[in-house]
Amino acid sequence: MAEFTHFNESGRARMVDVGAKDSTERVATAQATVLMQPETLEKIQRGKIAKGDVLAVAQVAGVLGAKKTPDLIPMCHPLLLTSVDISFKEESQPSRDGLCAVHILATVKTTGQTGVEMEALTAASVAALTIYDMCKAVDRGMSFHDVCLLSKSGGKSGTYIREGHGRAKE
Asked: To the nearest whole number, what is the mean pLDDT of the chain?
């Protein structure tokens, strides 16, 4: 079980002790994509969703999601986040399957002893869920895709950059 850091010698779950690790600047960026009917994206863009400004609310929800990650993911350490940035790229041209997309990028930073990958992934996921919640009255068929870590830096394991697959357009 040595390769699984979140298990103790008895095979039970544990929160990893990061006390001896050096504090370094840590940055992670994750993405999520919400696919929807063209009419749904048009309503978002024109501010015609009854619940309000979809992307503004999703942006705030993503920030809150990053901050609440240790409340949702049991083995995550509570971190002092120094920055959370959520951005959106709308793809109005329908794809082959007739759907449009909202691409979400979430970048989270901290200076500490453990990384912020889970916070970035949670931020992107919560933003996507918020878009669904705000638009479900007009499009229950929306779906989420390409939720993944795009990059991370800092810490002992160094830098990771996802190669090509599923990368959101910036």
From this structure: 91
90 annotated to a ligand binding site = no
Instruction: Please pick, among 53, 85, 133, 139, the residue that the annotation labels catalytic.
Output: 133
Q: Does domain 24-161 have CATH number 3.40.190.10?
A: no
Give the burial class of 144: count Cβ atoms within 10 A of its Cβ; 0-12 exposed, 13-18 middle, 19 or more buried. middle
Tokens 């971190």 sit on residue? 79
Tell me whether residue 17 is one of the annotated catalytic residues: no
Indicate the domain borders of the chain: 24-161
pTM for the full predicted model: 0.89
| Segment 77-100, tens digit of pLDDT | 999 999 999 999 999 999 999 999
